[in-house]
Amino acid sequence: MEEIKQLIGKELQDFEGKFAEAVKSDVPLLDRIMHYIVKRKGKQIRPMFVILSARLFSGGINENTYRAAALVEILHTATLVHDDVVDDSLERRGFFSINALWKNKIAVLVGDYLLTKGLLLSLNNNDYRTLQILSMAVKEMSEGELLQIEKTRRLDIKEDIYFEIIRRKTASLLASACAAGAWSTTASEEETERMRLFGEKVGIAFQIKDDLFDYGAANIGKPTGIDIREKKMTLPLIYTLQHGSTAQRRHIINIVKNYNKDKDKVNEVIGMVKESGGIAYTQQKMLQYRDEALSILHELPESDVRGGLESLVRFTTDRKF
Ligand code: 2DE
Ligand code: MG
Ligand code: MG
Ligand code: MG
Ligand code: MG
User: Fold this and answer.
1) Where are the bilayer-spanning segments (predicted)?
2) How many domains does the chain have?
3) What is the three-class DSSP state of 91?
């Protein structure tokens, strides 16, 4: 990460200013909430991908790149605000979520505000291609969330559905981030599409990592078992259900269905998943997507920017938070 800060530290700082400026409001309540959001920023991985993807191509970064980076982060923020409403989640980035502090009613409207503020950034600059790239992502994310609600409570969910869900709900935005970054420079349609595919692979690896955290795979004291409590079936559990004995499967299903609020029982499921090789399998899948992303990157000539993107990819799979 230090290497990336050196490479694009100044650009990231400029981006932060633009982000804060872009979400300002003259409605006092909204402005207060925007301050709260700006102060508790996340890892800012997506704007990093936008900026680095732009720098890969000749011409380098420009106003369009900054606008794309701000748009991506604003949309990301909007989707998280809505996601915490959908998931009834009271925490985000180690702080209270918007719905925890201001209730669902306000959180829904804050998400709507951010969504439209973001889209207007491109529209006001007649940047229809970027608008289209990003609108597509938001559409896919909404579909992914609904697919997840429809499918992941089914205890017979298959791997292909899991990958379809995470491709839409998470990877689509990273894919669009990389495409928009490339497009903001001199990249051709083909190059932009390659970068979209690159971002999609990274995004899938990113969500698999998030799902692994829930099984304590990193041993870092992050809360575990939340997905199981919510009966959200992710890859480690899907693998275990498909490869375990009938007795084991029945046992797990019984816990997930009837004892999902019992900490000891949830830990028992986590233990069974670990024993069955569900974690190892999931990790291997994650690395497969990471490597597919890296091989797309390696089609491009070697450079310090390519190196920076490579470390950012490795960060998404090696991170401890
Ligand atoms: C994170 O999943 C995925 C978020 C996508 C949210 C998209 C929405 C669509 P997680 P974590 C709600 C519509 C949004 C609009 C139109 C603004 O597994 O663990 O819940 O970070 O992620 O909560
Ligand atoms: Mg959530
Ligand atoms: Mg969610
Ligand atoms: Mg999660
Ligand atoms: Mg997460």
Assistant:
1) none
2) 1
3) strand
